[in-house]
Amino acid sequence: MLVGYNILSTGQTMLIISIILFAIAAVFGLMNLTAILKSTSTNKGVVYTHGVFAAVGLVLLIVYALGADAKSVSTSITLFVIAALGGFLLFGRDLMKKAGPKWLAVVHGLIAVASFIILLTVAFG
């Protein structure tokens, strides 16, 4: 251990990485939402990057919950799963080259943001 430095536990590290991945996913999600609301086609690289970062963040959060106090992040996990289901619907429509419903894109984003705020509150509050 380095003198004067606090080394994070594996669980804390997973939680922090999960938060970072969700933050990155949010940036790409905002780019997707902008395209959907403007009724323009979404950039496939942005779509895939958003999904991968969000999915890996969710998996890390679930793994963290398995080894920690799951109650502390259970609400956040539940909301992220609900948001992911909306994301899967939007992704499926995108693959079929059909526009996703704008209301679903907005609700997907709002649920994800609410979950992210809850996660930040649990982690740092």
Provide key terms for this protein.
125 residues, mainly alpha, 4 helices
Describe the protein in words.
This protein has 125 residues and is mostly helical. The chain has one domain. Helices cover 81% and strands 0% of the residues. It has four helices and no strands. The protein has helices at residues 10-37, 44-67, 70-95, 102-124. α1 (10-37) runs antiparallel to α2 (44-67) and α2 (44-67) packs antiparallel against α3 (70-95).
Number of helices: 4
Terminal-residue CA separation: 26 Å
| CA gyration radius, whole angstroms | 16 Å
* Strand percent estimate: under 5%
Whole-number total of structural domains = 1
The proportion of residues forming helix, as a percent range, comes to over 70%
Number of strands: 0
* Uncertain residue ranges: none
What's the overall geometry? elongated
- Structural class assignment: mainly alpha
The helix-strand sequence is HHHH
Main β-sheet, in a few words? Answer: none
Mean pLDDT score: 91
Q: What's the short story on this structure?
A:
The chain has 125 residues and is mainly alpha-helical.
How are the elements arranged and paired?
Elements: H1 10-37, H2 44-67, H3 70-95, H4 102-124
